[in-house]
## 1
Amino acid sequence: MANLKELSRKPERFTGGHRACAGCSAPIVARMLMMAADEPLVVGCATGCLEVTSTLFPYTSWNTPFIHSAFENSAATISGVEAAYQSLKRQGKYDKEVRFVAFGGDGGTYDIGLQSLSGAMERGHRMLYICYNNEAYMNTGVQRSGATMFGAETTTTPVGRKGYGKKQFEKDLTAILVAHGIPYVAQGSPSFWNDLITKMQKALATDGPSFINVLAPCRLGWAFPPEETIELGRLAVNTCAWPLYEVVNGEYKITYKPREKMPVEAYLKKQTKYRHLFRPGNEWMLPEFQKHVDEKWERLLTLAGEPIPAKEPVATG
Amino acid sequence: MSEAKIKDKAAKGPEAAQEIAALTGNEAVAMAMKQINPDVVAAYPITPATEIVQIFSNYVADGLVDTEYVAVESEHSAMSACIGASAAGARVMTGTSAQGLALMWEMLYIAAGLRLPIVLADVNRALSAPINIHCDHSDTMGARDSGWIQIFSEDAQEAYDNTIQAIRIAEHPDILLPAMVTMDGFIISHGMEVVKVLPDDTVRQFVGTYNPKVKLLDVDTPRTFGPLDFTDFYFEHRRQLAEPIAKAKEVILEIGKEYGKISGRTYGLYEGYKLDDAEYVIVLLGSTAGTAKTVVDDLREAGVKAGLLKIRVFRPFPYDEMAALLAGRKAVGVMDRSDGLAGLGGPLFGELRSALYESKNRPPMKDYVYGLGGRDCGPALIRQVFDELQEIGKTGEVKERFTYLGVRE
């Protein structure tokens, strides 16, 4: 369990002065990781918002060794760093205890970087991969990704006379990682700091590959006031659109259960990317979204061996 | 070491300690890698380079090297992992070919831009489409502007020698650039030859230990590798890459000489064969040089002043040396084992014409694109080139700048 007082005394290894948007949750996730780690960290990052806003030469926000090489290979790059570490340590050329972390946005993780991530996890490198999932290609101007949820308006899934946003549901990347049989997989949210930091600590302590999928609200792409980032994350979790759970050696555990599962509408209404869901003619969309969220939540409850509550009427706007 | 090894007891000097072995090109490169004993090898198998990493993984399994072998899921990840490992501070090697090198393309630029001295064995093979597993130089040529040093090998011996030297060249403090050593697919990679192999200790002593000044694993001095440059710095950082390239020729020559002292085989930027008084010169890269040498011998016997200029170092390109060597010849035939599809023959032709632009005594020059996709190039075809060069020599006129040699039109 993380303790706020202790955490606040830790040295800043991800510093201020970066150029992320006001209200961006990616730097919050990075800072939480730095607080979670006791050992020195070597961090890799895919091309994307976090990387371009934190490493503008000649400045850097990373007060820890950091490497960026390309968009699709954060996991492969850190595989190499970790392999070098193993080799040098085995040969007696290096004696420090270090942990390795690879970061990627949802684009660099769900889509273009999936192969590299899958390879690294399958090979069993001791690394923590954190996907800061803001549900679109935010760095290039809000294009859809495999993580974009149903109905969301992005610049490549625009709303028009026929278009109603993204037609498909999001890819369940967390399940894909669970299917890799790696020892630690989790979903987290910066809005639940204790839950997330505890997960990061568990992941870093795992002797093998670990993965945390963090929903990272994006004030630009989701269009909400910057001061509401944490609130948005809370709504995502409390509506069960983004459940918090972990899978340790294949065992599912829901780490936070909303006291009362809120209708997903409460979460979607806050974001302009879903505003068309509340317009005449699109009445079918919200129940569709809700049905998907309910089904996924029930599946998760089953996997975690939890009772499934009686069906409630679907809320509509 | 192959069963066929025998002590070369008759040899004197540095050669005395060497073992003569029957090795394929792939075996020779794997042997060099074993003797170099890199910290990390990350690779993905691809024909005809597969054997290199396959043999090497056996060395790892037998505990003959200290290497961490990363069997990645693609060549893109192979080069990405090499980049991570090299940035971490390790000595890193890999091998690939054709589509594999093409898949690495994005990362080749990043390896050079980050100044990481990775050494790659590239077994030359044609690029798709159509898919073809045999030799030509399209793969290496595709990577020629990536900032990698490129060294071509004529045979298995050179592939072995070049691999060892490449480590020193790449890691030289004034260079710090990745280097690829190439050999022709199947012709060299799978052809068995007599190779003189240095003792392990000699190689280890020659390559020394790698102690980079800047490394990612230096957690006490955290550094950011691969940051974002805007218009205010990108140009300057790319400009800095020109410095090691300018210095590389000197370093390559220095290391080639030093290698000569331990092996009896001294290397330069190129090799001239009966070149001094040659009137008709063929310029080429790689294994075809061997065939061309026999043709030159035959022509010399017939009284024709034929000569060969084999280029060893393609990047950086020895422009001045080429200009000095080729000016004043009666005719020069360039043989390109890849087609630049530029409307002006292959890439070697473009380089050589450029090299000779300022020469007062520019020779007439013609390009022959040959051997694509492993098409055989025997003495008869090379003879054809020399015949045509003699025709050109008589008139001084080149009727067509480039042609395709040995193709059904």
## 2
Amino acid sequence: MSVGRTLKPRKNYNHIGLLYILPWIIGLLIFQLYPFVSSLYYSFTDYNMVTPPKFIGLTNYKNIFLHDPDFYQSLKVTGIYVLLAVPVKLAFALFIAVLLSAKLKGIHFLRTVYYLPSILGGSVAISVLWRFLFMKEGIINSMLTKLHLGPVDWLGSPDVALYTLGLLTVWQFGSSMVLFLAGIQQIPSDLYEAGSIDGASKPRMFLKITLPLLTPIVLFNLVMQMVNAFQEFTGAFVITNGGPMKSTYLFALKLYEEAFTFFKMGYASALSWIMFVLIMAVTAIIFRTSNSWVYYEDGGDRS
Amino acid sequence: MKQTQRGVRWLAVAVLLTSLLSGCSKDNTAASGSNTPAGSDASAKQTTLRFSWWGGEDRHAATLAAIEAYKQVEPNVTIEAEYQGFDGYEQKIKTQLAGKTSADIMQLDLPWLQELSRKGDFFVNLKDQPAFDASGLDQEFLNNYSVYNDKLIAVPTGVNAYCLIINKTLADQLGVPADTEWDWDTLYEAGKKLHEQDSSKYLLLTDHAAIRQDMVTMLKQRTGSQWVKEDYSLGFTREDAAASFDWLLKAMEAGVYQPLGESDLFFGKIDQNPKWINQDIVMAPSMSSILLSLKNVLPADVEITTGLPIIAKDAKDSGVLVRPSQLLAVSNDSKHQEEAVKFLNWFMNDKEAAVILGDVRSVPPVKSSQEAAVAAGKIDAAITHAVELGLSRAGIVDNSVANNSEVQKIMDDIVQKVSYGKSTPEQAADELIANLTSKLAELKGRS
């Protein structure tokens, strides 16, 4: 008689799991989702944080695209910044990671030293330091003058200032470097042995073994650094305040100015949504093109 | 059986959620309780007030000393000081006001007060506060700068006059006259000559805000009216603007000013400019309240004097800017408005406070306070001199549209283009008029 017994269904414990992560869920809803959705609403209003928001349809977006030359200036500046700072940062991080992957005495100390700028971060204090290093009478120009190469107007020239800020970002390559280092450590040594047996040179082994196997990490670093670069604010705000002549007027500065100098919160919300769409679009392009250049040892999950 | 088990589980969930909410409720109740004044203990109740201000080291030290002295007057009142430099202060204050987390008493700049008074009812009307005595203040001054919609919403902390702050020791060394009345032509000639003699020297310390002020002043002097009028129209012609920018371009090229790319790194903090600190710049066109900051970074044996700002030959209005150094207001969101007003009254009217504070916010506007501070030798003679000169030649009063931050930004942008040689004076004039016209129409529609 017991042969025909039906197996009991598995007990449902979902509610217990939900309870354990409830604090995080509440935080997500309150601090991420609510602002996210409410800013979309505000972007269709003339909200100034004082009087109640009044619905004005697409006026904010229309004004941004049709009547605001500073919007295009900030897009242009941010575009140049992203296209320069991100690739240079990744290239430099990879280069240093390869150097620091050597089995040498004292290598751990060097890894720590190169990681330090990343820990310091793009804080206000570091930005102030950067300003004093690179200003006309700063120590960089003092050294260059002694070498008869200067002085250069690193921060005061509209043609140069953005690159000086980019240098600050590139200098903080430590976190990308650590990820590359971890990736390099995981590459099987037998691949290099096989290459060595076949007479491959070090540069060729780098191009044919190291780089292809690191492409998933390149993709990760590229997306992360690109997203951060689009939102870069501190250096441009503290060091140059968007100047000279708006040559460092990054999108985030434009957003900040509309929100906290002019109190145009509706307008600023519209700008933030434009930034969101822009970053999503660039990310999508990167992921779509990654099919052709990212190599997965397990073939990915596409097969 | 299964039905019962499932019910028990969800009941547990509900109990936990209820506990969470109860905890929040309890916190709110406690918070509310602490805000309810206990009638019988009101006079002995401990009160904490937040006081927010910007400034340099001198102002911080003097204000903290005044706060300490107030403990003797009101032992049950604690003043929490929130002070910083000017850079970023405006953004912080506006954000706090909008979010209703502002200090009880706060220091404000005139343009922000004008903007904020249009946007909402942020500040206590001091006319309704018996604890505040306004009789020592000049009524015209108050009406011009502190009264909006018939409410007295802030009090001037000092009388500020735009002036030339002069490093006299350096001026004498370099042969620059320190006691002359400049016009734009004589200033240009002197600056050009100085820079030709020594290319590391400049006549004027500045940033883009100071140059904007100079341009606005030039327009007022040429026209005799506001550069932007209260009815959202322009107060100048294309010719006026082109002539002003032409002077600016020539002055930049001749080295009258330090190049803007260098000086603007110290926007809002001109006292940190190494060129001033190293005594390569002779004069700073600025508000008189800035004098102490500029003086403190120089060696003690350097003599600092003041003079009238630049006034054009044949000026139709002197353009000399006289206004409150800053203003102090009490937040409408303050939970202790009476105590805050009492402190404000003491801070402004009390002779002891005046002696402690001296001239850290320029010359006190209350006559008796001014006399007490002078008697105690706490007001720098150069500041008094600047204020007296300013009052004797005061120009027209700026209106709130002219002081609007978006309007000023348009002039800032044009000033930078001209300063960097990216725009001819005529192009700049056209662009200024076009952009202002567009912005003013927008502001009018929004108001």
## 3
Amino acid sequence: MSFVRSVRPSNLVILAALPFIVYLFASSGDYQRALRAILGIEPGSGVYVPGFLLLTVAFSAGLGVLILSQAKAARPRLTIATGLVALVATAAILAGDLVHPFIASVVANGVDAFKSDLVVKGVTPRQLTEAADLMVRGVEGWLWPAYAVLLLAGLGLLFLGSRAAVPEESLARRAGSWLTGLLNGAGLVFVLLFAHLAFASGLATTIRAAIAAYILAAILGLVWVGLLKLRYTRRNLVTFAALAAIFATLSAWFLLQPKDGYVLAGTLEGKVGIVTNTPSGLISAVRFGQYEGGPTTETPVRTFVTPQQAIEAIGKKEDVSGALLPSASVPADWPRLWQVEALNDRDRATGITFAVIAIILGLLTFGGFLHRRHPLSIGSEFVVDTIRGIPMLVIVLYVGLPLSGALKDATAGVFDPPNLMRGIVAMALAYSAYLAEIFRSGINAIPAGQIEAAGSLGLNRWQTARLVILPQAFRIVIPPLGNELIAILKDTSLLSILSIRDITQRMREFQSASFLPFAPYNSAAILYILLTLAAASLISLIEKKYDVKHR
Amino acid sequence: MRKFVATLALAALVAGGAHAADLGGKLLKVGSDTTSPPMESVDTATGQIVGFDVDVVNAVCAKINCQAEFVTTGWDGIFAALDQGSFDLVASGVSITDERKKAMDFSDPYIINSQAVLTRAEDQGITLDKFKAEGRKLSAQANTTDAQVAEGVVGKENVAAYDSFSAAIIALKNKDVDGVVINGANAAAYEREFAGELVASIKDLESDPLGLVFRKGDENVAAFNEGLKAIKDDGTLDKLIAKYWGLK
């Protein structure tokens, strides 16, 4: 009975329903197919599970020893048991061949299938070639022994340190903690957040996107709050006014570049050739006859890469009879229907971008001048206010497609994150605004007397924030932060519009292929419920740890 | 006399055979994902739903005496909505596939389509083999036959399937993908729309018959098949095809 009492009520409901859920999936072929598709279980991926479990257990147990040994209440027996589990798991990794299939699959899925010669071409699921497999085995041949040695060293140092007179200050203990923590922490992060899990790729995508976006959103939210709290000085205003002036000058320089001349030459009987990189305004002018003496009907067009190709096509009497060409390349004997000058699209876009930046900076400076606040503080407030008002779907689409494209263009293809990264950044951006408000309310809840006291102790602003305000504010904001974690977990479903194959996307794919009415939706809903309940339980654990008043 | 009545009845049957379907002016709701000119799109000037599918359904309805009201809906879940009776049929450039036939009924094909691949202008003249060999990425609208064709060409992991067609086009302009598989019928329209940037480099990928979609066992299928036959026979369908794809 005491166990039943200790379980959270919502978890109890799910636990009670679990047998029915298991029965549902076990008894119905449709539900099994749906679950396989939605979780993203690749065929033949069962062999990777033991390896993944072994690694996870070894790394978690290693970290567990560290956490338990540093806890306020000493639990020697539990600590030793955890240490033993870590050692046994490590021994199993060394002894058997259980881990290799998993690692091989991680490597095979971690490389670019076309640029790398490690994988067999055109095979799904991906497989390493014989040579690559041998190479991976070679690496594992020294990697796992090295891990075992380092783990033993770390645990040994921890043990030695705990025997010292003052355990907290002994050098051995400190070295042991760093070694154990870094080693197992890095391993665990890699296995849980980065390694390709072929036996649950859909589920992994959802969870990883949520966690990554949440962490990034928290960091961004703190940045917004930090900017909001910046102090006003005259010098800032001058600096920002100068920056605005610089951008305005740059914008003018780009917009005043010499224009390119274009000529519409030939006749309009057939199609009109258009050359790539022609300013888009001119193309539509030609299509819809928006020039002097232009036809009233739509003119069909055909695209060519260079002016020469267009001229050749007209010479060969293909379906093209005229062309919009740069003036320099027009043959002299052709009739000229229209001459025009236009700035090329690239300079125009750059100029307009700089103009927009200059206007924004100017407005921020003006606002700062009016309200005697730092311009960036005004900007941060504006960002939080606007982002909270834009629907998540719009932000995801905007960041994922046009904005990424523009950045990719501006950096000549260097900045080219994969779709998942873009989605994560978009979600982090959207949620950072909410988190910033939560942080702000937590900080404002700290009495002013605390800050004055910190000042009188001689702490500077940064120290006051780090040592006095933030620790107290954190306790206040744990419940709302938990709320946002659950919200972000279910909002990952919106990433499916960027063709990220998370639970929702796989659910849609399966539904559209099978036309089953209920199974895909039910399976996905159950998965999401389990995920959010797990998150809610984690939050209440943290609340208990920090002794937040509980209902 | 009996003979005469029988003859009359027979005559009526024969006449009816030529023109039996009459839905009695019934109003039918037609679901359509109106994001794909010239099959169907929302005319920005008037807000009306226009396109080849609209004209075909209206022409058929003129033959079999019904009225069609078009309803804009997202492609995702369009068939689930049909199943639940949100509309009576779907006319949205739907390809007839065996998998889909299991779950719903199709009319006879009203146009045989073929897929094309839209690429950036500088990739003009690229071939399918090149797409395969260089592991280039293709895009298409998710859960369409276009996406299936794309997967057939470069494999599932190199297909970025977006929810809406326009997202796939942006991805192509961004160079996130190197081609978008589209309805061949729409190729010319997109070439015009994105003149100077995109061209349909590869045409006639796979033949792809399009049909109107009905709920399983819907009695209107036979009527619509008759109507389609009628507009094929009297040249209305050819006129419509010329209207949309007859640009010089």
## 4
Amino acid sequence: MSTPDVQYSISVRNPQGREITFAQAIREALAEEMRRDPRVFIIGEDVAEAGTVFKVLTGLVDEFGPERVIDSPISEAGITGMGVGAAITGMRPVVDIMFGDFITLTMDQMVNQAAKTHYMSGGKLKVPMVLRTTLGATRRSAAQHSQSLHAWFSHIPGLKVAIPATPYDAKGLMKTAIRDDNPVAIFEDKMLYQSKGPVPAEEYTLPFGVADIKRTGTDITLVATSSMVLVALEAAEKLAELGISAEVVDPRTTVPLDRETLIQSAKKTSRAIVIDEGYHSYGVTAELASVIADGAFYYLDAPVKRLGAMDVPVPFSPVLEDLTVPTAEQVVEMAKALCGRH
Amino acid sequence: MYEQMCKIRSFEEAANELYTSARMPGLAHLYIGEEAIAVGVCEALRRDDYITSTHRGHGHCLAKGAALDRMFAELLGKAPGYCRGKGGSMHIADQDTGNLGANAIVGGSAGIATGAALSIKMRGTDQVAVCFFGDGALGQGLLYEAMNMAQLWQLPVIYVCENNQYNEYTHNRETTAGSMLGRAQAFGLEAAEVDGQDVRAVFHTMQRLVARARRGEGPAFLLCHTYRFRGHHVGDIDRSFYRSAEEEAWWQTHRDPLKLLADWLMAEGGVEPPIFDRIQQTVRSEVEAAVQFALNAPYPDPSEVDRHVYA
């Protein structure tokens, strides 16, 4: 298993801190919250001794015991429903769904139960649960282990959705997710787990609904999510060599969405490309592009363009799989065309 | 218990009247005929025990202690309703009486009830959680995922299956293979079967199952055989395509849970018949007053529409 060939050192505007991996950042967030609040527990498949298939939770069971880091049967709907029940009766569960593709099995519990309980009860019942899962292709895992389905949950009122790109964001957003009184889904790109970045040793959380400008620029806005932030940053480096100054904006949460930062950036640069690893059609890029088109229309010099994953089941063969995911080269070509440079 | 069953019966008749006179919006699934289960089960529970309920949930809600007036207000979509008019007939929740909510997805609450039981165990209290569902939910996989985990972790949850024989408009002999009780027994759950028309049988069996759950002896499954006197929902008037009028009449004549209890009280307890009339009259006037309250209550303010999407 290879680690992604992208370095965080490229212009990511993070605070200073130790360099730790994305996986460590998630682990630290969970451990700190479990120490702080005895109501927090983790339930999922292979979360205890195995520390999950991605080794993200390694060591947590040693500190917190099998009563708080609970290995479940392979029952995604069951553990998600139990998360809802535990949450409305006073606990703060973190439900671990091994691969993002398996959220299909949780859909009734997330969409009809978790998302609607607060509203349907007239505000009486609260569902402070977190569903953490993965997204992202390019791991040669084929069509049922490679999808980015965060748009599904983003579509549902009552759910919040976080999609961190850096270890710093991952830790801060995870801690906020656990403290939130609503059901929150957090999608972690499995290709990012071993990537490193600066994370302060001190306690911090990151607010939901606040986009982060990962790089400032003046000629074009690249709105990107999760690992596509790294793709956008790589593209911005290449564009800089061509004399095009790209601004990279990371919404960090799709729900709530920081519309204002997206619109302001597009007004400043007058051009925008939206990049997300979900399927192109009806995906997150459509919503983000619409927000920019709606809010910055009179400032735009070109239509807002979108880059998502190809509308095909993710293929196994490496040669084919790589074709389905947006690349920095595609972003560069699209940006050059938008900026009138050929 | 007779009074509680009578209250549910009277509530449901009034709901039917409100619906058929076009004063109640939406859907209503009546519990008439099944009253002994809700009352028998909930009489064995404490106020701080949890229940999850179904689309046919008015009886469970009332038996757990909800007030008539606020329930009717919810049925009519009015502001003083239990859920501020946002839940309606199929979604009444009442935290104060431990009702974690009715659920319009068949079998949808199996995970929630089991999660509540996990929470009880983690918090170290001696509460129990009860999951009500119908025989139709036996076709839902979630139930079996939940029962598996409940038994593995010895959770204080009791699955109460109200076998009213019909999955909406289809008899369960067409939908349900094998043994109903055997499904729970396969997971190692304590499983019991009772006449769901006999409130005393439901209550006594439930007392035993609740006591063992409180002692930490794990989950149980209670299969209650019953019959839905009315249609799947109030609009299900012509039922000849799935069951006969004779069958319905037989159950209503011979197996009415209110009548069975009254007969027993008269025969064994020496209770005089006028007492039942008095109870019925009292309950009816309470229900009438509650209906009036709900009819006169205001609708929610339009500003409510996007409140409580997020906590």
